[in-house]
Amino acid sequence: MRLPILSALLLVAATQGALAQSQAALQLVDRVIQVREGDDTEIQLVRTNDLSGAQTVTVNVSISSTATLNEDYTIDLDGGVVTFDDGDVSEYFTLSAEDDGDLEGTEYVTLTLGTASGGANVGKSDSIRVEILDAQNADTDLDFVDPLSIRIREGENTNINVRRSGEGSGDVRVDVTSVGVTAVDGVDYESIRETLDFEDGDETRNVRLEANNDDELEGNEFLDVFLESAEPDDRAAIGQLTVEVLIEDDEPGQPGEFELKNLGDNEVSEDAGSVRFEVNRLNGDTGPVTVDYGTVDGVGDDGAKAGSHYVASTGRLLFEDGQTTRSFEVPIIDDDEPGPQKRPFEVVITNPTLLSTLEPGSNKVTIRILENDGVTDGGGDSDCLGWCCFVATAAYGSYLDPHVEVLRDFRDRHLQRYSAGRAFTAWYYRNSPPLAAYIAERPAARWLARAALTPVVYTVAYPGVTASVLALSALLLLRRRRRKSVGG
Questions:
Q1: Model pLDDT for residues 195-224, shown as the tens digit of each residue
Q2: What's the whole-model pTM score?
Q3: How many domains does the chain have?
């Protein structure tokens, strides 16, 4: 017999309340990250709620991973243990993706947090999937079609589309498999185990995802849909590996989803004093629930560091029954020293309690602290880490601007597939930072750069429309010339 919804939530809250308000939670910042063969990536962890004392947590490699430790990747982590010293709010370790020269498509490794020491808990964000992008280019790529995060309500169904691209010909195939994260495969949704056959010339195939309605209050649940076993393996490979699916619970009494919002600009001067954030509870507000927040150091020498550039901040926000908004502040430190133009760090929310969840894509905000004591790096965007569209970022003012995203997508999907494109990309990254620095500091230069880049962006984003416009223009020009010739 199920208790009434509110009573059940209050009962669980009462049994967990004292511990939840005092105990530190150690957890991972991201659920999925990508790294290309030959590159490194930092796996970030955050300690929330209580920063006192030294605490450790072990890191384990899942046996379900398709990438192999010490062959496809290495991890720089002594004894497989991450240590938080007294006062530390974030830590990270490095994963290096090895370029083995083989055509393998995208592989992945799942890392999970094991045992925590020093009186800490392991929080809900206890695993991360690192997707290793192949440095070798296949004749045919098989990818999920955007969007790569899907919402579906209980009792509904949707198509998940898979795309074939590249210059390869002939028949290819790929397996599609569902894997539950918090949703149970075959219970909360109908299990997917299907092979998609692409005949020569086929561009798109799809599978059907059906979410079951069980008439139980469970909160939102998650699953992943994977691509596996592209064949023939000598000319077909998997690109975008997964789609995340959120199944929305439709029962009354939902505890809600949390989103993090910055109430000001994402770029702030180092003399700004503080940055204020708001956490909103969406799509339900039944019962008392909590969510943690914390700050995460920027990686590398140019990343903002707690204690030097901002004050390490963490806490546990309690939302009472019916309460939908809480806020907090992160103090910024004016260090009176010259440095890079921008120092990034992140603010995250994590570890929602009971049946509450995080809204996908809304759990993290990147803050860039702008130097006001003299720039030492020529004005470059310090968090680009070698993969920014430097000139476009300077022209449009943000690495996250939609125009810049279009150019990055074109680089990854097209230029990186061919040796000439990769050579151009390498040349561009060696030579463009000085030009980007010049543009970033001059409004007139930014306007001219945008004027030059915008037609390129729209050509890349809408090639069919651009081709039609050019063809129509050529036709009109040809007719005009013929009329002139006849008239003459």
A1: 999 999 899 999 999 999 988 898 999 999
A2: 0.72
A3: 4
| 42, 104: one domain | yes
Give residue 143's pLDDT band: very low, low, confident or very high (50, 70, 90). Answer: very high
Distances (CA, A) of 448 to 213, 398, 410: 55, 16, 22
Q: Are residues 410 and 309 in the same domain?
A: no
**319 neighbors 353 (Cβ within 8 angstroms):** no
Q: CB–CB of 243/189 below 8 Å?
A: no
Domain with residue 186: its CATH number is 2.60.40.2030
DSSP bridge pairs for 208: 159
| Strand, helix or coil for residue 393 | helix
Are 320 and 419 in a shared domain? no
> Going along 31-72, which residue ranges are E strands?
32-36, 40-48, 55-61
Q: Return the structure tokens found at 75.
A: 């991890």
Query: Quick check: bond before 232 cis, omega within 30?
Result: yes
Per-residue confidence (pLDDT) for residue 337, from 0 to 100: 83
Do 440 and 346 have their domain in common?
no
Widest distance between CA atoms in the chain: 94
Cβ contact 439:445 at 8 Å: yes
Structural domain that includes position 454: 384-488
CB 205 within 8 A of CB 163: no
Band of pLDDT at residue 148, cut at 50, 70 and 90: confident
Phi, psi dihedrals of residue 438, rounded to the nearest 5°: -65, -45
| Residue where a domain stops, chosen among 134, 158, 181 | 134
CA pair distance 117, 183, nearest whole angstrom = 29
